[in-house]
Amino acid sequence: MNNRTALIVRLSPWLFTIGLIVIWEAAVWLLNIPAFFLPPPTAIAKAFVDFWGPIYRNSLITLETTLIGFALAVGFGLLLGLLVGWSRTMYAGLYPLMIGFNAIPKVALVPILVLWFGIGFVPAVLTAFLISFFPIVVNVATGLATIEPELEDVLKALGASKLDIMRKVGIPRTLPYFFGSLKIAITLAFVGSVISESVASNYGIGNLMLQAQAQFQVPLIFAGLVVLAVEGIVMYWLMVVLERRMTGWAQRSGFAQT
Amino acid sequence: MPAFVALDNVSHAYAGADGALAVDGLSIAVEPGEFAAVVGPSGCGKSTLMKLATGLQFPVKGSVRVAGEEIRAPVKIAGMAFQAPTLLPWRTTTENLLLPLEIVEPYRGQMRRRKAEFRERAEKLLASVGLAGQGEKFPWELSGGMQQRTSLCRALIHEPQLLMLDEPFGALDAFTREELWCVIRDLHAVRKITVVLVTHDLREAVFLADRVFVMSSRPGRVLAERRIELPRPRDLEVIFTPAFTDIVHELRGHIVKARQ
Is the same domain home to A69 and A141? Predict the structure, then answer.
């Protein structure tokens, strides 16, 4: 790969994003699309300027809600994943329950959470948590369940306890699965908090968008979407950095770089 | 001489395998310091033999004795290596070698205090199989043959009295395999350690072993036993002598019968 290609590859995310915005803007003007149907990027930018105060406040609330729910999911998911991967009985007993639970659309749980905790912050945090812990559990358990039996034999023949095998092999082996699952979980956590905010809260980007819709402030709705996208990308990127830092040994393939 | 590894009329079935026997009436006695090879058709219970002799499984019937003692728990004086090197990718080669020392007593308790000494021992062991200076590399930076050498070192680091090898060269190309035969041959000669090698490869068995046991198809038992009188140290050239070929041919006859 020569220098010029390398530069283009490095700039391509920005070029593509700018390209999309330009095409969007041009399409709206050329096709005469009404702003209340699809506002052009310039109108969305104007909404950012006009409503900067509420957008800033609510985006922080959504971020906080999501992160707390996500943190709960990481702690609880890691614990449950280790438990499920540790014992065959736990696996057999808990797995069907978890699948059943995961099959429930989480938006259907919001009314119950509201019944228990009232509207606002708590149901949003819990929805973010409930929707994002499942991939973490499954991935951690998978990492433990796929230890090579031969390696287990080598260690058992030396008198290794189950805890030894877990500490020396199971947990390090699970880390790439775990950090991989964080990327999925953080994205889902945003889904959870925004769902709950739009159904049952007076705060957050979800609520802001709902109110904007009621007042027919279409550019503001789109501004909300942009905020969510930016927050999502930043958090996803943080998870990728974390994953590379912690489990560099598992990512030695040059496949995606060529 | 009393046997170092003695399986006496052993029958074994795995739990949940609807009572089908993996081995039945299996008797094998390996002398101290002897190199024994076990050959047989696929699925003849060779791996079961490995598990029984290391105390990972306990026989349904019969007795298994290692170093004069009835087996009731994993033996700990055995080192094991398999067809897959099963190295930990997040540890360097040296750190992989240290893994057994982190598990088995008395090394486990001394790990902190004697770490430098253990690392040195690992480096020496690596050098003895031709991997000098490779200790800081990660397993995925090594070739298949080098990984298998590392796996052998891991089996030897705690200075076991018994080395159990389950088709350790099965996945290697012919030339690398012959190189590793010589590595094992030399390790056995230097360390006077008892070795049990399970393999499909008759030439490998005859080249390395003092005695070859031929197992029947499932449920496995010993059909024939052949002492290999070829003088030691054996050079790879011995493979191309008529005496060698005759033994291989004879053993092959047993296997063909066992498959029927």
Answer: yes
- This prediction's pTM: 0.79
Domain co-membership, A187 together with A111: yes
| Local structure of residue B238 (DSSP, 8 states) | G
Domain count of the fold of chain B = 1
Indicate if A123 and A16 belong to the same structural domain.
no
Q: Could you tell me if B3 and B21 are in contact, meaning their C-beta atoms sit under 8 angstroms apart?
A: no
Contact list, B78 vs chain A (CB under 8 Å) = 157
CB B160 within 8 A of CB B79: yes
Residues A89 and A69 occupy one common structural domain = yes
Please indicate whether, in this complex, the C-beta atoms of A159 and B103 are within 8 angstroms of each other.
yes
Q: List chain A residues with CB under 8 Å of B49.
A: none
**Do A7 and A74 fall into the same domain?**
no
Report the residue of B86, B87, B164 to disrupt the A interface, i.e. the one with the largest count of A CBs within 10 Å.
Answer: B86
Say if residues A179 and A243 touch (Cβ distance below 8 Å). Answer: yes
Q: What confidence tens digit (pLDDT) does each residue in A45-103 have?
A: 999 999 999 999 999 999 999 999 999 999 999 999 999 888 888 888 888 888 898 89
C-beta of residue A50 within 8 angstroms of C-beta of residue A109: no
Report the gap between the CA of A84 and the closest CA in chain B (Å): 22
Domain count, chain A: 2
Is residue A111 in a domain?
yes
Residue A26 domain boundaries: 1-33
Secondary structure of residue B166 in the 3-state scheme: strand
Please indicate, yes or no, whether residues A16 and A92 belong to a single structural domain of this protein. Answer: no
Residues 32-51 of B with CB under 8 A from A: 51
Percentage of chain B surpassing pLDDT 90?
A: 30
User: In chain B, what residues touch A153 (CB-CB under 8 Å)?
Assistant: 51, 54, 56, 80, 82
Q: How many CB pairs under 8 A join A and B?
A: 63
Q: Which helix (H) or strand (E) holds B179?
A: helix B174-191
Chain B positions touching A169 (Cβ under 8 A) are 88
pLDDT tens by residue, B77-136 = 888 888 888 899 999 999 999 999 998 878 888 888 888 889 998 998 898 888 888 889
